[in-house]
Write a structure and sequence with these properties.
By secondary structure, the chain is of the alpha/beta class. The chain has seven helices and five strands, in the order βββαααβαβααα. Strands 3-2-1-4-5 form a five-stranded mixed sheet, with helices on both faces. A hairpin with a 6-residue loop joins strand 2 and strand 3.
């Protein structure tokens, strides 16, 4: 077997799903043992006023908790760039996650992040497409794997849980379809 550098998975939780939302939590990791998670303090962001009570019910994080326990936005940006610069980074909602990543860096006055977030389906299809005869076979295999990965982890609506799910999904793919030297 070849040694491949594991991709990194990332997820954000946000104040709402509106266009005025802002990131309130981020988690990232390439294995379950190295998942890193930060609550994000909105104190540096004068535009971070949008708050959805229904979203709070889902993730269980209050604005007060973020202000008291959150990491300053500029520090979160530094942590992310230090950990993810030059790495392949994936999520299952990259459109939203890239939006919140950009909002975080903008609010912190950090310019552009040193990485981009791609959709996990790109990674999964790169691995599985050469092995599948039909497109429908690929779609069915991915759905089966998602169900199996979800069943292994107790559901929470938090960034760390979502990263753990993505890691489990990728690990299941790698165990089921390992890359060999001949590939």
């Amino acid at each position: 077997m070849t040694t491949e550098k594991k991709p990194v998975f990332i997820d954000f939780e946000a104040s709402s799903l509106s266009g005025f939302s802002y990131p309130i939590e981020v988690a990232w990791g390439s294995s379950v043992e190295d998942i890193r998670s930060c609550l994000i303090s909105p104190s540096q962001c004068h535009d971070c006023i949008d708050w959805d009570d229904d979203s709070e019910l889902l993730h269980g994080l209050s604005r007060r908790q973020l202000l008291e326990q959150g990491v300053p936005m500029d520090r979160v940006c530094d942590l992310l760039n230090d950990a993810l610069l030059g790495r392949q980074v994936f999520s299952d909602a990259n459109v939203y996650d890239n939006l919140w990543l950009e909002k975080l860096f903008y609010a912190a006055g950090k310019g552009q992040p040193g990485f981009r977030i791609r959709h996990i389906d790109e990674l999964l299809c790169e691995r599985l497409a050469p092995l599948m005869v039909r497109r429908q076979e690929l779609i069915e295999a991915l759905e089966e794997l998602r169900r199996a990965a979800r069943s292994k982890i107790a559901r929470q609506h938090r960034a760390g849980w979502d990263v753990r799910f993505l890691i489990e999904l990728w690990d299941m793919v790698c165990r089921r379809w390992p890359v060999t030297d001949g590939d």
